[in-house]
Each structure stands twice: as structure tokens, then as C-alpha cells.
Amino acid sequence: MSGPAAADLLERRVVISGVGQSAIGRRVGRSGLQLTLDAILAAVADAGLAIGDIDGLSMFPGGGAANLPGYANGNLYEVQDALGIATRWRQGVVEGMGLPFYGPAMAVATGQARHAVVWRTVKEGSAARDAGGRPAYGSVKPVAEGPLAWLLPIGMLSPVCQVAPFAARYMYEYGVTREQLAWIPVTQRAHAAGNPDAVYRKPLTVEEYLAARMISTPICLYDCDVPVDGATAIVVSAAETAPALRSPVRVEAMAALVEGRPSWDQWEDMGRVGHGAAAAMWARTDLRPGDVDVAELYDGFTIEVVWWLEAMGFCGTGEAGAFVEGGARIALDGELPLNTWGGQLSGGRLHAAFGHTAQAVRQLRGEAGDGQVAGAQVAAVTNVGGYEAGAALLTRW
Asked: Would the pTM of this model clear 0.90, i.e. be above it?
């Protein structure tokens, strides 16, 4: 390990003790606050703790009510009041957190909290149905100011429009085809069949993928994550409490790093995204890419999986198309099982690697049901990419 001595890493002072989720679906008849409380209560019980044990609260994003279409967190104060929690530490994060558990881990590692819970709640499924289609981010405040001053005039109101040029450039530069990339959503759809909470469980074929309508060339319908209603909560605890926890998971290494300008349209190298965060993470562990048993890689769009496969060193730059072609390598019994719950492409957009983290924890515990990877000991988790890039390794206790 080229970075700090292992004993000095803040990761060694924390564990992920619990994960919980509310009902998940295209439309769930519960408020954002109700979904949030459902997920938190489930996560605390999953850790083997009681609500009275929680002394840290963190929400993502901060600010409470929806600041983008379908962003539906219960307000930090509402949640604390509803659950009757006495806190020593609280945090409201508006993006920029790198990983869901980054802030809580730092709080617990520095003694500001002993058991901290972080949550993420969305009602994007309901927002899409109510709007008659997936609403663009710019529809909330369609005023030409700040970044929107450059995006509104050309109709670039959705992340798909901002990321599509990256996919086009990558495919042009490395000769990767849609036929190759199709195997990411196709394989993840097969994995979703084992996840009873997944939105889409019917098998998807390469032919169906290629025939799907374009959203923003070369990104088609099946390259996009699925808007849903649902909440995910994660409990981070002091490592010294592990003997009293139900089934803790170690945080082996984590890092978040922005290596370019913090905006998609000004990113300097469209063929390389996330490499800085991945390198910073690998510098904090003696484990290597070949040690990873399961990869839960952020998949807001298919191209983001491509970024992380290469940034994390699972294949070389420009080699992701060949790596995923045919689906064998990324299948449940392959060399790198990928997004074993169906990911956001089939399981639903739970956002910011919350769903990915929950699945990684279940894999390491052996609690992933029909999607379980036999003998999983090391799981990789990544979040977004670009100016929100975060990467972590979780390991079995």
C-alpha cells in the first residue's frame, strides 16, 4: 500500500452495520418522509440496533424537499423529530459527497457519532408519471442563470444530453460498438430476475436493445436508469461495536476525487472518467482488481459502467466493449459479476450508489438470495463519475 499505514486509515475505525430499503416501484403510494422512515427503521433493525442507539443523521441531498424532479427526502429535522433521535452529529449534503457513507464514516471515525445513518429517497417514478414523461432537471427552475445559462438555450436539460457526447466520443475513439455495450443492460436484466424488488425482470435481448428508441444518440432507452419511488438507508458504526452488531461489513478502502473541472460540458478528457478516484482508492489498500469478487458499479447510464470498468482496472482503457461482449465475464458465475441486483438500469434509480452499496453489503453477508455470488469476500462500489466520482472496496467481516 503506497498511502497511509493501514492502522491510520479512517476506514479501519468504521463498519457498515446495516442497510434497509422501503418498498420500491414505479409508483409507491407513500410520501417521501414515509419512505425515508421505512428505510431507516429497516436499516437500524438490520444492524441489530435500536433507534435509541443512533446518534448521527445524514441526508442526501441536503435541503429537504425536492430540489430536482422526484427528489423527495424527508427533511433532516422531520426525520429526527419523527424518530425521537438525540443526535451528536448531523449533515445535509447537496451532492459532492463522493460515496453515500463517506460523511458518516468520517464522523464515526473521529468520534463525533457512534452509529450514524444516511439515507436517500426518490419519487422520480411518480414524478415521471405525473409529468407524462420523465421530467428534465431544468424543468424545476427554467431560468437562464448559473450553469443553466449555457444549457437551457440548447435544450440540454437532462443528464442524458450531457453524458451522450461522452458515449459518442468513447465509441468513436476506441471503436466500441452498441452491439458490444448492449451486453451490460442485457446481463443486468438477467440479474434483476433474481431481485424481487427490481422494476424490470423480464429478459432483455441484444436485438431488443438495438431496436429501442434513441433518447440522445448514442444512448437509447435501455441505456438509461429507471425512475422509481423508494428509499435506501445505510448505518455506519464504530468498528469497536462490531461484536454487538448483527452482521457488519468492513470498509477496506474509499476515496473521492475530482480530477477535472466540475461540470460535464467542460470535462477535459471524455474518454477517461473516474480514474483519479479509483487510483486514490487503490493507494489505500493492498488488494488489487483481481481480488474483487463482485462489482456494484454506478449505472445511471451504460457508459458510466464502461468508465468504471476501466478506471478501476478491471480492463484497460478502451477495452470495456470487448470485456463485456457476450456477457460471460460479467454474469453471476463470471470473473466479475456486475450489478448483481440488476443495477439502476433494471432495478431502479435509487441514486448516488445507495442501491449499489446495499447490494454489496448483502453479497458479502451471503444474503443476496437468487443473485448471490458464491463465496463473495470483496465487493467494489462506485458512484457516478466525473465531478461526483467515488470508489470503495467493502470486505466480509
From this structure: yes
